[in-house]
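Recap quiz, item 2
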Amino acid sequence: MPICPRIILRDSNMSSQSLYLGKILENFINYPDKPYAVIISKGEEDIITWSRLEIECQSIMNSLSNIDKGVVLIFLRHSSDLHGAFLGTMMAGHTPSFMPCTSVKQDPKLYWASHQKLLKHIQPSAIITSKDVEEEMINANLVLGDTKIVLIEDIKIPEKKLDVEIRGEEEIALLQHSSGTTGLKKGVALSFDAILKHAESYADAISITENDNIISWLPLYHDMGLMACMIMPAYTSTPVIHMSPFEWVGKPHMLFEAIEKYSGTFTWMPNFAFEHMALYSPRMPKKYDISSMKAFISCSEVCRPESFDKFLNAFNELGVNESSLHACYAMAETVFATAQTKLGKSAKRILVDQRDLNRGQKIRIYDKDTKLDTPRILVETGSVIQGLKVDIVDEDYNPLPKLTIGEVSISGSFIFDGYYKMPDLTNQRIISEKYMTRDLGFIDESNRLYVLGRIDDLIIVQGRNIYAHQVEALVSTIEGVRPGRMSAFGVYDSRVGSESMILVCEVASELNDDEIQIIKSNINKLLQSTIEVIPRKIKFVNPGWLMKTSSGKVGRKENKAKYLREN
Amino acid sequence: MQREDIKEIIFKSIREETEFGGDINESMSANDIEGWDSLAHVRIIFRIDHYLNTQIDLNSTYATETIIDLIELFIEEIK
């Protein structure tokens, strides 16, 4: 059967798609009975072997065979179906993209209404979903146009094996949708070349092999879940044990249970999760043996030393030690990882003066016992992985010397191709072939990267990226709020180990308490149903409270400082 | 333990976790209390469990619409 080569012959003419998907096809043959993944859901464990994955990929390819090539959005809840749906879509020559489904706290009508603009922008050729999700779409009167619906319950195994579609090198392999309001979500377009090179480089950086076991509660619509816990391990033939984020958050011991049972070696999670696990530690039903772990990798939000310490103190006796706590600097625009701490060694910590942490300033590193008025301990995010280059640049994009704070810019062989159908935004962020991250950081004398925070208005809440201006645009639609007269910003909440969103809104002074309460409730309901993040605090102020910049705009930095002074 | 005691523990747990400074009453829902997001919900339940020495099934708490429902759920759990 003419198919993308089943046994990889690594000649120089083979496309990256053939190399990436060819490795998966090779695994179908070489490891038919070996687990590709184990899906844990509601106490049940479902093993997907490589041979079963092949059948599921073939069934998806069969269902998509008569549909025009294009983007396929996958709206499926945590289940075994996700993997065949995504990889089968790739094999059928389409461009898959995982999308989140409604959670129990979201209003389906508001949620789907907010997706209408996204669907119009992407114009997907198909949506793979389940009957219950389709029913939500119908009830919300979602207009699908020419988009075909493929129900996972209706897919069938083809009578004859289907060939993998070979596509041009320039074709997009997948879309990774960033957070943000659904109508404005950015689709990060990644080529097969990029995902292949990233998988090889990152696997080499952490020395992961088919003998490792990844344990994950991360959703696959997030780049950390998709790349670290699906796309890379499918290539390295590393089994992944997946659990639902919603189940894990309520039963954090599930992570340790799976580590013990499957001799887990790697897990990735945002900073808040280290705090959450530590908070939960007194409720752990038993003392799990988690000494098999090589790395708990903190990623997707600024790694805080105090969160590592809480985790270490809580679980030291279970086998966690300082050299198993790691950090990674990652983003969808570089497929995933950009820098990674060295396994087997403790992540380096340095003492700096908080007052030195300004753009353009040279960092002074103090001896750890030095007494400072405003001390701040930073954790390295590691060295840049092979294939990428990081430059710290000033406002004019000129490289800065070591230990000087500037914007982190990245170039190299697995940078994204651009934001899908957003050329203007792409041009703003890729300058002279460098991706401008809008993160502030510096590189030390040993080439370790330190990341300090954001230049722009991005708020990172529990690993999710939320743009303040998008939140403000949404809240402006709420009756009773003065359009454009609000300010959203992030404030670090040490109890949770993550940023929290604060919203300050001007409202008419004659509103009574009941009316204010209704506005608050409507803001929370709208934000919960669209971006799934609600403000930690909503402060209502009288007209005139909000400070403006010299250009007349509501200034977030100024209003954040004013809010912090008053609260 | 009386219903009123359970109610006070739930109110206290909500306040501690969300730092909500306004009045809380039984008919309120999560949407009425700023800071009550999905992670805060779990942490509120952890706190209530800690004070009441219970281990409630978290899924059952997601079905509650108001604080009254949450109180009733914990009354049942303690029985």
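The mean pLDDT of chain B is 90.
The helical segments of chain B are 3-18, 38-52, 58-62, 67-78.
End of item.
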